[in-house]
Amino acid sequence: MNKLYIGNLGEQASVEDLQGIFGERHLKHSAFLLKTGYAFVDCPDEKIAMKAIDILSGKVELHGKVLEVEFSVPKRQRSCKLQVRNIPPHLQWEVLDGMLAQYGAVENCEQVNTETETAVVNVRYGAKEQARLAMEKLNGFMLEDFALKVSYIPDEAAAAADTPPAGGRRGFPPRGPPRAGSPSMGARPRLQSDVPLRILVPTQFVGAIIGKEGATIRNITKQTHSKIDIHRKENAGAAEKPITVHSTPDGCSNACKTIMEIMLKEAVDTKFTEEIPLKILAHNNFVGRLIGKEGRNLKKIEQDTETKITISPLQDLTLYNPERTITVKGSIEACARAEEEVMKKVRESYENDVAAMNLQSNLIPGLNLNALGLFPGCAPGMGSSMGSGAPPPGAHSGYAPSFGQGPQESETVHLFIPAAAVGAIIGKQGQHIKQLSRFACASIKIAQADPLDAKQRMVILVGPPEAQFKAQGRIFGKLKEENFFGPKEEVKLEAHILVPSFAAGRVIGKGGKTVNELQNLTSAEVVVPRDQTPDENDQVIVKIIGHFYSSQLAQRKIQEILAQVRRQQQPKPSPGAQPPQPRRSLGDRK
Prior knowledge:
The protein has 590 residues and is of the alpha+beta class. Helix content is 35%, strand content 21%.
């Protein structure tokens, strides 16, 4: 992906002009192919090609015309893949995810390492039309004073679809099955964990881990049956480099222990006297559950493994860094045991979120949690940090995303937040709550302070299920981000749903059976207070207390019960009765 297209050239433009522009900026290149109004040029590598795009496109004039520079993509490869450049460097992942999801299902989104101050991501949409619409709407869109730049990048999958399959004529299967004994490609057994192990190692030990001509790293890979990526080019000049290990949980742990042993030997050989802790990288979405309530999970791991464990602060998280650093100090054996326990918790959190995502998707038809940007589904290490940010393009009062099949009923949820957090939710001059309201397509209001409960304030959220999911998710994330909950404390909030008094019994169930099943299914605390006096609309409160996913699952299940009650309340037509005729208005023709 090193060939560039240079557009918007005037008739006077010459090869010498282009050579001068590239030469002055020390951009290595091959010969230019000049056509009328545009040109092509090859760069030695993708890094230089991206640098050329960043410093030339829309910024350099030639004979009174501003150059347009982007990757040259053959028409047959212009399919579902886009590159989005000039992204604000401190933009939260979930803001970016939500913005991209407005135009279709995002199948994959990965960050590209560049030398630029702004961020770059490659995005693959589920369909060509979605990618085309995203490019049309996002190219030039202003986001926090940065104009996004979007272009197609080669879609190898699309090109492959146009290539005749090996062993057969185009559009036809191969002639007959493979002969006995001949090699055939079967489904590769899926042995490795969905969550790789990522660790940080001091840069001075990377050479020893790789070994002469790569012998050491090949040996580790072979012994532990793992794939190991040492990201040497990331963070040039940094004191530490990330290593990613793809394998089974046991394979990851064995590779980790071997790497620690190599570093210790190298430290002895080079008379390096500082302590070398094990540093594990984990996505922020999983860290709260690793820590546990009041830090209990982390304390237990420390006690069981005889290690000291600390976790980097939330303030370090940005678009470039959605991961927290878990530092483990102790002997190699102790650190290895701690790694097993830490990653076990991280993997459990990931699997629980996948289960929650699948169940949530079933409860809200058509809802794509991955597209909402509140779940790290693009790849490990990529996903939401559930913070605040600007609304997506098109998010105004008349905007409504099409997640479900047809219109969905609006719901009202009362969410209780710490009173001290009200200012953070509202934002300066009300900007944050306005942006949140537009992004989620929900009405969000802060109720007046209750003199009987000075510690909490009620947030009133009105909107359909998708809006509730997005708005509540942002609020949970904002509270964690702004440190209203401790570093070792998971965000749990109380939510109230108003239900018709006659339906409260259905939520409770016979002998409390339904409410107990709800709590077991969702891990949330669900309470229908006894002896409530119904309000003027004959409604009573159902309380839900839990972290974000638990609360969402409980809310959806309760709404499902209410929908069932409403259907049963509808009068059934008597046998032989004529269906009601539509009323005619005065304007109807006779």
